[in-house]
Amino acid sequence: MESFGVEGESETLKAIFLPSVSPSHLLPVVDIARIFAVHGVDVTIITTPANAAVFQSSIDRDASRGRSIRTHLVKLPQVPGLPEGVETINASTPMDIALKVSEALNLLEPQFRQIFHQLNPDFIVSDMFYPSTVDAAAELGIPRLIYVGGTYFAHCAMDSLERFEPHKKVDSEDESFLIPGLPYNLEMTRSQIPERFKTPTEFSYIMKKVKESEKKSYGSLFKSFYAFEGPYEELYRTIVGTKSWNVGPVSSWVNQDVSDKRSRGHGKEEEEGNGKASWLAWLDSKKKGSVVYVCFGSMNNFPNTQLVEIAHGLEDCGHDFLWVVGKINEGEGRAFLEEFGKRVEASNKGCLIWGWAPQLLILDHPAVGGVMTHCGMNTVIETVDAGLPMVTWPLFAEQFFNERLLVDVLKIAVPIGAKKWKSWSDFGDEIMERGKIGDAIALLMGEGEECEEMRRRVKALSQEAKKAIQIGGSSYNSLKDVIQEMKSFKLEKLNPKDEKPLA
Ligand code: UDP
């Protein structure tokens, strides 16, 4: 059942969506593509077979619901050193292979251009990691919208870092400094900001290209909602100087059916045969709001020592927990976790998910009362949408900025006390001890007035998230607005103002 109107007026508007290949970029862009299709736009998503496998079942369901949406497959070119069939970048992808995947994707550029010419779209929505699509769209005389991962908040903060370089004015890694030009006094330390702001890396070069293409784009699409970070949305438009539309929460807008929620991100509907998944049976047996859900996204690779601390922290915290340990290779860490899993299962305190968790379903479950997260932007929005407070444990990318938004501005999270930014491929030497993990969970799940206040605030934001995608809500209106602009652009292209219309 959908809670928004479907209008037939934009049937002839054709769009191409080009998502990137890591789950946290692929999933929201596919969700956004599906939202456009719900609203009558004819959508083609271009991707490789392994990436399509992750979301094709949702596209098939959408097509059977009468939406004009399909996937166009391209084969990832062979690059020396890239194993056959490796087309995605996730926690199990070593850095050298991730670079090979990027190299192979770059080789696809001429093919993308050719497909754009063949399919003749009215506009293109491309992930930020395909900067050349801005020129390809210009060649066709059509708008390119860029999908920018992360929050407006983080982008404004990172722009200020680039512009004013406040981190260069402190003497040590742990001295805090003010990031100027934001609507609130954002303080960070040098050890918490991404490496590229301190030392030029290969990623700095990539981000320079991304930023240039962002400014040359017709506009950008974000996946949060106005009540979540409205002042930063407005600031971002001023900084970048382009249009921008905030159309979230995207995951709940299109994944309203259990089958869509269950298959999101891994293509399969059932993880464990045809019976009820063991995590679900376990959650069903728990009291309302009593369980902490612990998940660190799709790129996480904690060292064994950290896994041991998390395990003890959870076992001793006094609350039940559902922990997504992900794919752990054979070895000491796996053997420890298997033992740990058996023990907490026997005591009925915890449940472990090995592999991919159907996160949207879990967040919806009434037994879940709080979330421990690495502050990946998708998880943050999904958690706020579900009305759950968080323990924030930022690790990499723009996650330390997201933490400040959740803790200082919105006051819906308890910080665990992470001090060092890491690269997703190198977790460095910071180990969060079990005591800190337990303390943060105690504050998250506690019964004091402060905890209740935090819960009330996040519930209120969840209501705003739900309103945002209803007819007349902020994200709904943004979507209508961007579709209308794309139509106007198309009409103007067909009938330029300086030419007399045909009699
Ligand atoms: N996700 C999931 N199951 C998992 C791990 C992740 O469904 O076991 C989804 C999660 O719902 C989110 C995305 O994958 O939509 C992860 O994105 P996020 O920005 O939170 O973190 P990242 O993967 O970039 O670290």
From TrEMBL:
Pfam family, one: UDPGT
Enzyme Commission (EC) number: 2.4.1.-
Enzyme superclass (EC): transferase
Entry annotated with the keyword Ion transport: no
Record key words, sorted: Coiled coil, Glycosyltransferase, Transferase
SUPFAM superfamilies in the record: UDP-Glycosyltransferase/glycogen phosphorylase (SSF53756)
Protein family (similarity comment): Belongs to the UDP-glycosyltransferase family.
Listed PANTHER family: GLYCOSYLTRANSFERASE, SOLANIDINE UDP-GLUCOSE GLUCOSYLTRANSFERASE 1
Protein name per UniProt: Glycosyltransferase
